[in-house]
Amino acid sequence: MNRVRLLHFNAALGPLDYRVPEGMEVAPGSVVVAPLGPRQIVGIVWEPERLPTEPVPDAKLRPLMAVFPVPPLQPELRRLIEWTADYYCASPASVARMVLSSGGALRGPSTITEYRLSGGMPERMTAQRQAAIEALEGEQATIRELAGIAGVSEGVLRGLVNQGVLEPVVVDCDRPYPPAAADYAQPELTEDQQEVAGRFTAAVRATGFAPFLLDGVTGSGKTEVYFEAIAECLRNERQTLVLLPEIALTEAFLRRFEERFGAPPIVWHSSLKSTERRRAWRAIASGEAQVVVGARSALFLPYARLGLIVVDEAHEVSFKQDDGVRYNARDVAVMRARFERIPVVLASATPALESLQMAESGIYEKLVLPARFGGAELPAIDTINLTEEKPERGRWLAPRLVAAMEERLARGEQSLLFLNRRGYAPLTLCRHCGFRFQCPNCSAWLVEHRLSRRLACHHCGHETPPPNNCPECGEPECLVACGPGVERIADEVAERLREARLAVATSDTLNSPEKAAEFIARAEAGEIDVIVGTQLVTKGFHFPELTLVGVVDADLGLEGGDLRAAERTYQQVAQVAGRAGRGAKPGEVLIQTRHPEASVIAALAAGDRDAFYDAETEARRHAGAPPFGRWAAIIVSSEDEAEAREAANRIGATRPHLDDVMILGPAPAPMALLRGRYRYRLLLNARRSAEVQNVIRDWLGALSFPQGVRVAVDVDPYSFV
Ligand code: ADP
Ligand code: ZN
């Protein structure tokens, strides 16, 4: 081959052809460097017939400059890149960028100099140096990363290097990971578990596409069972990818994995240090990495010998990415398994309706674990009708819930209160003039965080200290907090159960793996009596003394009115309920609601999952919603209101008229201003048979927009703001 076509990352240009110079070896999938004008670009060698472009005469071709010393991307991965781009209306380059997600990994073997504290002290101690030394205890990383950790400039740290306070350590970037062993600590499985594990191990050995829905109540041993599939993969020297929805609580998972396999898995998420990222990427590409546990982005890594994918808590919304390439990792995982011809396991106690439907129609094999391990009973669930059993004025917890917590406290057991609202109060207003604190960049109220003394926007990160006077009328001491967040609930608990030891568990308080691990250790050791938390505490841990779960406001999730509101409420409450009574002692769940008659609440209270899913299925069928019909959104945004509106109107005016696609809008998005951009939305509701992606591509492809306008397409959207 002496002419190649490249997929590259310069969005303004189409695919480019190059000449392969004498003596250079390239194959489809090779990652190369090529000249573009005076600059260099990175590209991936692609099959030309799959990447059409205007042919360039031979004489005009410039030669490739170099090939990166990494294995060529395999055809299965290249097909996945194409499929993802095609399905989600994204460019193949933007998907390929997620594959080549470590710049450092492309370069060959190398060493790196990291630094750590030597134990020495500087001649002259300054406050900054002191703080840096304290912050860097136990850390080893590059100067730049250490500067980030310590929150000081690199200059300060270089000063400490010169003084010998930080010492250099030369590290092999690609040093091997400790090996995991299939049979390190094999548990004895129950009969039900054995049956499921047997299906998995057979599928791993068979190496063909095999999608499974592992449907098992919380605590039934789903993790234990898919660990057996991983063990089989290890025995066959193939790689496993486990996708987890929340990296904050992976700590518990890692520990459990290590207990089972004798070594931790390789972790992949967006906040890895660049050295860790490089090391993991190269181990994955070489095949040395055995098991990778990661957030959704781990799905696009170049596994050399993938043998199994597990998506744990597969119903979780966080598998959907809502910027850049708007993909759903659960669905792409199934596609990757198909291209790789391997099994994929979607595990959940509350599967998405879409997944259940796939099982129903025989596309996924459904495996059920019907009972909790060790005979633990599922908790008893009851509702508290807030219109009858009212909390006292200015309080949020009904007397019956407080009494139940007092009982637990007296018995030395734990309670968990669930409220999916960070901070102290979701809205702050002026008692005098009614002024409401709103984000200047978003259509959203500022949320008061009393612990950290700030008013913050949860969408753009804008924050300001709470003022003493109202910014509108100038009245002093007049601000009132409206509604509860977890901090306010924690305050109420502190007032009413004075002896209780409290922990607030949210992404604000457990914002690092260390803090999450510390929280879990304290809860396990019985050092916490009451946990107040957001959805962060709905999954992934097992506290045997936790016997009461209180859902502070079950109606909260139903208010947004989006397509999956009922399903999401069901899943969240069922998941958090699953935290209760996992040990020998039975659990109790109390759900506070103003609508005990709502079908989702009634189904939860009756423990009748099928009733809920049946009702929800009918509602979706009626609405032509997934899985019976499809949705896609077009989101138009600009910093200029008029520009956004005009662009949206132009898209609206050129809409195609089709029998099987209904097009709604354009209309201002519910979140009409987000991060300083004005937003309009169009919504497509299509029959399953419609080729909605082609419709959108043809429609939008014929239009062009001013520079400042962004037009994003969201296929199978989860967010309707
Ligand atoms: P799930 O993933 O379905 O919530 P887990 O796999 O976390 O369930 O199991 C719940 C608890 O029961 C865990 O503490 C787990 O270690 C334990 N467990 C489950 N199955 C077994 C088994 N066969 N032998 C020993 N412990 C088990
Ligand atoms: Zn904002």
Instruction: Name the ligand types.
Output: adenosine-5'-diphosphate, zinc ion
CATH architectural label of the largest domain: 3-Layer(aba) Sandwich
Mean pLDDT: 92
Low-confidence stretches: none
Strand residue percentage: 15-25%
Q: Count the DSSP helices.
A: 21
Sheet with the most strands: spatial strand order: 10-11-9-12-13-8-14
Distance between the amino and carboxyl termini = 49 Å
CATH C-level class of the largest domain: Alpha Beta
Give the helix level as a range of percent: 25-40%
What does this structure look like?
By secondary structure, this protein is α/β, with parallel strands linked by helices. The protein folds into six domains: 3-74, GIY-YIG endonuclease; 111-172, Winged helix-like DNA-binding domain superfamily/Winged helix DNA-binding domain (Arc Repressor Mutant, subunit A); 191-374, Rossmann fold (3-Layer(aba) Sandwich); 376-421 and 485-617, Rossmann fold (3-Layer(aba) Sandwich), CATH 3.40.50.300; 423-483, no CATH class; 629-715, Alpha-Beta Plaits (2-Layer Sandwich), CATH 3.30.70. Helices cover 31% and strands 23% of the residues. It has a seven-stranded parallel sheet, with helices on both faces. A six-stranded parallel sheet has the order 15-25-24-16-23-22, sandwiched between helices. It is globular. The two termini are 49 Å apart. Adenosine-5'-diphosphate binds at residues 187-190, 193, 216, 218-224, 373, 542.
